[in-house]
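Researcher: Can you fold this with guanosine-5'-triphosphate in place?
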Amino acid sequence: MPPLRDTPDLLESLGLADGATLADLDMLTRAARMLTGASHAFVSFADDQYLWPASASRTPGECKPLHSAYCSALLASDERNLVSRNVLQDPRTQAVVRQPGDPRIVAYAGTLLRDEAGRKLGTLCVTDTVERDFDAEQLALLNGLGRQVMNLVSLRAAKRQLTTALAQMTTLARVDTLTGLLNRRAWQEEAETLRKLVLRQSGHVSVAALDLDHFKRINDSRGHAAGDAVLSALGKLLAKALRTTDRIGRIGGEEFAVIMPFTTPEAAAARLDALRQRIATHRIIDGDERLAVTVSCGVAGVDAQDAGIDAALRRADQALYDAKHAGRDRVRVAPVSARPLAVSG
Ligand SMILES: Nc1nc2c(ncn2[C@@H]2O[C@H](COP(=O)(O)OP(=O)(O)OP(=O)(O)O)[C@@H](O)[C@H]2O)c(=O)[nH]1
């Protein structure tokens, strides 16, 4: 049957569609065939409508309607095994409608694949083209191999969960959960990479330090939750107003840092001043209240002689301190370094 394009591939969903897993399943299938002396063996997984063969030779999306497979009789029963000397004359498999091109099957022995919760996931079966019996030992081996198939499936599921959890943890370790911006360490790493990259191309890089004005008053008068709402809103404003190539981090309680590649300190200051004005006129909703906040900002150009991004951040911090002392709600630019621009790092 041609692959179904509009039905999600069950083996993909189960995380079993990669070459290494399918090769392992092929080994177990071959073992089943050899240990029972059968002509064919199959591992298949099932959903409500289709049976999905799990073999390295499958094409993505390959499946067949359940009602055309003898395994459907096993999946529909409450038994662990279905063993039939001749499926063509067996009342349990009479309803199965074979499809043109299906291999000739007369004898059948299958073991049900159940997960730990008892859900039926599929079958491991062996078939023969002539009438025959399967003895108790062959059936025990088939059941044992079925358990190995399920061990493999559980291992793959556990590996998938671990990979997802690891990716989530890696993201969480880099992100400030309140604002969604980079945290201090991640910002420093990314800013350092950008600094080196742009200096190599003899470009300008600017760093800005931004700090909310009198933020303590908001916390004291309206509570910590209102303070958090302000921080979160400011994070969104920054992310929206700045370029996607800029990197923004929350590097302290109410302090933010921005690195702006290919931007002179003057251009950076102009952009941040526009942002400062926008913040001053913006109102942050806290319950019934609309809160007004302002920010102060210090900007510094990255000096090619700087040992790292921290040197520029320190200068931006000093300019921020000047902005606070000059009355807040303003942008100050750090004095230009006298040293020439050269490639470093
Ligand atoms: N709600 C909230 N408040 C925080 C957080 N981190 C730091 N703060 C608060 O930020 C305030 C910082 O106060 P100050 O350093 O005095 O600064 P400020 O009140 O903004 O004054 P200036 O910076 O001089 O304008 C303190 O009240 C901290 O408790 C946070 O994650 N959430």
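Model: Folded with guanosine-5'-triphosphate in place. The chain has two domains: 10-171, 182-333.
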